[in-house]
Every structure is written in C-alpha cells, then in structure tokens.
Write a structure and sequence with these properties.
By secondary structure, this protein is an alpha+beta fold. The protein has two domains: 1-67, no CATH class; 69-140, no CATH class. Helices cover 46% and strands 15% of the residues. The N and C termini lie far apart (51 Å).
Amino acid sequence: MAYNTGDTSIVHLQVGDQVFITTMGVLNTSPVLAAKFSQRWNPYAASISTDNAASGEESKPQKLFLDADPDSFRYILDFLRHNQTPLIWDAKQGFDMIKYASVYHMACYYGLNDLARWIRDQKYEDLITQPFRDFCLTAL
C-alpha cells in the first residue's frame, strides 16, 4: 500500500494529555498510523478533511487522538519527521533504559522497524563517546 507522505494538511494530534501539531504526511510515514487515520480503518477520516472543502471554508486542522505516552511518542514523532534517532541520555544518569524500552515498544507497534532495530541493537551507545562522557562529568 502506498501512503500519501506528501499530504501537508495540518493535524492536531492529542497523545495522552499533550497536543502535537504535525501533518498527515508525517503521520503517513508510519504504516500503522497511516492506516489508523485512513478511511479504511476510520470511516470518518475522509469526512474530517473534506467537510471544510465542501463548505468552501478555509481548511481547519484535523483533530486526532492517540492513547499513548506523550513523553515517548515525541521521539516517535521526531523519527517520523526527520528520521532522527533518539538520544535519551544525561551526564548524571546515563542512558534512560526505561524510556528506550518504551520507545522501542512504540516503534514496533507503529511499524518503524528501522528505529526498533536501532534501539534493540543499542546503537544509541555509539552517539556518546567516552571523551564526551568524561567532559560532561567534569563540567558538572
């Protein structure tokens, strides 16, 4: 199935108690999100985007909801937007393995196999070199 990643219609996506603003094209880069917000799974999806066009009004942003952890979903959204892998690390605590586990499970669920594999293979460790870690610790 081909997804319309060029769709620039604005979406207000409420994830848990936070609202993220993005485009349908960004959401469509995930096969699961594309399907979830398509007319195939959601018969009201087509009417959401066409209601304004039919009335001649300027297009209003779509309002969608996901029941998910917004703190973890923001890393998913960054990956969808920029293909950016998450760095969840600070000098005192190191890597946040609980957060990585949460992002990993979301990546698997949303069909983001490259991100899931990157986390599973612990490639995030390659982002922080020992000299950088030493510098951060001495700067504290």
